[in-house]
Amino acid sequence: MAVKLAKSSKMALVVHSDVGALSGYQSALSENGYITVVARDLPTALLAITQHYFDVCITSSRLREAGDGWPLAGVLHLVFPRAFVGVLTPGEPDVLTFQSAINNGVTQIYQQSSPAKEVVSSIMAEASRRQAAGPNTTVQ
User: Fold this and answer.
1) CA 93, CA 131: separation in Å to the nearest integer?
2) Are 117 and 23 in contact (CB under 8 A)?
3) What is the CA radius of gyration of the chain?
4) What pLDDT is attached to residue 4?
5) Cα–Cα distance between 44 and 40 in angstroms, integer?
6) How far apart are CA 120 and CA 109, in angstroms?
7) How far apart are the first and last CA of the chain?
8) Per residue in 48-96, pLDDT tens?
């Protein structure tokens, strides 16, 4: 039996190599009304990108190797220009982290140690702010 999604369904993509982290984000996003697709690696994430339109994308900065999540974030930004793109980093952001975020169109950087509910709560606040600003407004 196929599941039929309403056009107004909000979709999220979470890409992380840790199944526990994926589960936490999927749960937190579901509580906020998002249908969540999870991927543990780059090929699965790319397949998901070709099959769905995402409103929120969260990826780890490290999927298999250090820094390989940044190019994925850049692709997500290009494919879904209105989506919120967040990247989870292993430590406190430094200059190179901020440079990678800017170069790849990342909306926000989060520490991987932050609880999923806290990160999703921050994303929901930003999404509300963007919605209130209107569709053609850039929120700084």
Assistant:
1) 27
2) no
3) 14
4) 55
5) 7
6) 12
7) 44
8) 999 999 999 999 999 998 889 999 999 999 999 999 999 999 988 888 8
DSSP symbol at 11: E
d(CA 117, CA 98): 23
Q: How far apart are CA 7 and CA 2, in angstroms?
A: 15
Token couple for 36: 């969540």
3-38 per-position pLDDT tens digit: 555 555 899 999 999 999 999 999 999 999 999 999
Taking residues 105-132, report their average pLDDT: 91
Show the tokens assigned to 82: 């209105």
Domain coordinates in residue numbering, the chain: 10-133
Token pair for 84: 């919120």
Which superfamily is assigned to 10-133 in CATH?
Answer: Response regulator (3.40.50.2300)
Listing DSSP states for 35-99 in one string gives EEEEESSHHHHHHHHHH---SEEEEESBSSSBTTHHHHHHHHHHHSTTSEEEEEESSS--HHHHH
DSSP symbol at 8: T
